[in-house]
Design a protein that fits this description.
Number of domains: 4
Radius of gyration: 31 Å
Number of strands: 9
Distance between the termini: 66 Å
Strand order of the largest sheet: 1-2-3-4-6-5
CATH topology of the largest domain: Hypothetical protein af1432
Shape: elongated
Largest sheet: 6 strands, antiparallel
Helix content: 40-55%
Structural class: alpha+beta
Length: 615
């Protein structure tokens, strides 16, 4: 840099020990897009301050300089516990600067870099503080225009959030010609209207705050890219990044709030900061996120304890290790291959028990209580199930026998058999642990039974069995071609594609077809076979449409709320309102129910359904 360069002159003037107006410069702290920050001392008041010196080229534009001073004076009039105030505004020797308190602490970008994603509860705490500050500023018609993690300071001793650099991004519209993008704010967080150079108001800050919160919770900006142009295009055209939110286990309440804060059109965002605060405070009431129509593929729900590299628990080792030696695990599964599975010890010894489930054989209270004593996880699950409220009993449950009596002998016997199957026949091949799949299947059976009752449809008696066995084809194919199954499930998970579609590509057969061949050879009941065959396409059910629709909807709800893992990476439809099984049940039902009533009365209960813990 030449000696005559204004920037070089400024650095010389602000060397440690130099003075700027009535401040003594102590040390350089940081340099950013707007200029440099220095630690200084104010002798008259015996206090340390932070001095922000704007880039010297800004001072060359008189219109910019005057606007900055006017804007800074308006901000200096703000008095709020979560806004860093401005002490002094000055211009000296061609330098524009302002002084503010020296905050002992770190900004949120520094904390992200050091510690990674923020806890959900902590983000809510600081978000409410930020919204309070922005609301106060908007009462004076002041808009920040550059909300981002580095402008959110956390005071070390108090933990208080403080917003910095209020309103200064507006001034960057008058920056030099080679810095036209500066007026956009920061690419990771800028609102669509700022990119288009349209008028801004509080809703622009709301958008940028939403993008900032997303970054704090997820660890990446909503449309993060190595190319600024792609990131800006994402703000203008990209769908809300729901997939990232789901994969980072954001609660439905957070997702719903962020999706609205990041609407492309300002009028589609929250209408006021008060409305936003109300939504933030009520996030715990949101049990399910309702995706917009623009979302075409919705990943199944994830739980924090699940490990994606192990297909959420379906395999015993990291799938990257299992699959690293080959990219092609294509194979052809035929009916003859499946017939061979009948002789395999992992499935065949339980054929009689599975047939008993299908034929609705009852157990005895004594036998079931004895089984619960031997298999403690079954007993624990029965107690949780009986006290869940799903069986309409308010009586106290004192032990396993009370639980079995409350749930009912028939259902308890079916659950015992399926638990036994899971425990002792879990390893369809040496790489698999099918317990996550069967946790999902047990849930589907229980939900299918409950859904049929809820819609006032006469029980066929096969709801439990059909739900328990709807995915049996996955177990069968896992016995035959385990690596193909792992690779196919991995593809569904990674590419966000329908599992059946991936199975037909790589194995020439999907799991419903495999399940039907196996079930027919086992002489399972016709309703169960039809449910296995058509649980992904209930409109194709000919003889037992209500049963198949109940299994279809139960399967969707279990995936939607992360109740076990079935090996499929996506839901068959993002919107619950578009679910085929739901509409069939509404049409068949003799009870006056509709989709909205169903959502309000039953769906809100599903997340509280007890999971079957098999260790």
């Amino acid at each position: 840099m030449s000696a005559g360069d204004p920037k070089n002159t400024t650095d010389t003037l602000l060397a440690p020990g130099s003075r700027l107006s009535h401040y003594s410069i102590l040390e350089h702290i940081a340099t950013g897009g707007m200029g440099s920050v220095y630690k200084a001392f104010e002798p008259a008041l015996q206090r340390h301050v932070a001095i922000k010196v704007l880039r010297p080229d800004f001072a060359l534009n008189e219109e910019y300089s005057q606007m900055f001073e006017d804007e800074a004076r308006a901000i200096a009039a703000l008095r709020h516990p979560h806004i860093v105030p401005i002490y002094f505004i000055g211009r000296e020797n061609g330098i524009i600067f302002f002084a503010m308190p020296l905050i002992e602490g770190s900004d949120c970008q520094e904390l992200l870099n050091t510690h990674g994603r923020f806890p959900h509860d902590y983000v809510l705490k600081i978000t409410l503080q930020a919204v309070d500050a922005l609301s106060e500023a908007w009462k004076r018609h002041i808009v920040h225009r550059d909300i981002k993690p580095s402008n959110l300071m956390i005071e070390r001793d108090s933990g208080r959030l403080l917003l910095t650099d209020f309103g200064l991004a507006k001034c960057l519209d008058f920056a030099s010609a080679d810095d036209k993008a500066a007026g956009w704010g920061s690419p990771g967080y800028v609102s669509p209207e700022q990119i288009r150079r349209k008028p801004t108001d509080f809703r622009s800050d709301m958008y940028s705050l939403g993008a900032t919160i997303f970054h704090l919770l997820v660890g990446a900006t909503p449309y993060e890219s190595t190319k600024t142009s792609d990131e800006l295009r994402g703000h203008l055209e990209g769908a809300f990044p729901y997939q990232q939110a789901v994969e980072c286990h954001l609660p439905p309440g957070w997702i719903a709030v962020l999706e609205k804060m990041l609407k492309k059109k300002p009028e589609d965002r929250f209408a006021s900061y008060d409305e936003l605060v109300d939504a933030l405070n009520r996030m715990g009431e949101v049990t399910e996120y309702l995706p917009t129509a623009e979302i075409k593929v919705l990943p199944v729900a994830q739980r924090a304890e699940w490990r994606p590299e192990r297909l959420n628990g379906l395999v015993l080792t990291d799938t990257r290790d299992l699959l690293k030696f080959s990219k092609d695990f294509s194979s052809q599964v035929t009916a003859q291959h499946i017939q061979k599975a009948l002789s395999m010890p992992t499935v065949d010894p339980w054929a009689d028990q599975l047939r008993e489930i299908s034929e609705r054989q009852r157990g005895s209270l004594r036998d079931l209580a004895e089984f619960a004593g031997e298999v403690t996880e079954f007993g624990d699950f029965m107690v949780r199930l009986a006290t869940s409220g799903w069986f309409g009993s308010d009586r106290p449950i004192n032990g396993v026998e009370d639980a079995i009596d409350c749930v009912g002998l028939e259902l308890s016997a079916s659950l015992a058999l399926i638990t036994l199957y899971v425990r002792d026949s879990a390893g369809a091949a040496k790489h698999f642990d099918w317990r996550m799949l069967w946790r999902h299947s047990v849930t589907v059976g229980l939900l299918a039974n409950r859904l049929t009752e809820y819609f006032g449809i006469q029980l066929s008696g096969f709801e439990l069995q059909a739900g328990f066995l709807h995915d049996i084809g996955k177990v069968v194919m896992g016995d035959l071609v385990p690596m193909s199954v792992v690779a196919t499930m991995r593809k569904s998970f990674d590419d966000r594609r329908d599992l059946c579609e991936c199975e037909r590509e790589s194995m020439q057969m999907d799991h419903p077809s495999a399940g039907v061949i196996w079930a027919a050879k086992q002489h399972l009941s016709a309703p169960v076979v039809e449910a296995i065959a058509t649980h992904h396409a209930p409109a194709q059910a000919k003889r037992f449409p209500a049963l198949v629709a109940a299994v279809n909807l139960a399967n969707h709800l279990a995936k939607r709320f992360g109740m076990g893992y079935s090996g499929s990476g996506v839901l068959d439809t993002p919107q619950l309102e578009s679910q085929a099984g739901l509409h069939i049940l509404v049409d068949i039902s003799e009870v006056d129910l509709d989709v909205n009533t169903f959502r309000e009365n039953l769906v809100s209960q599903v997340p509280h359904f007890p999971l079957m813990d098999l260790g």
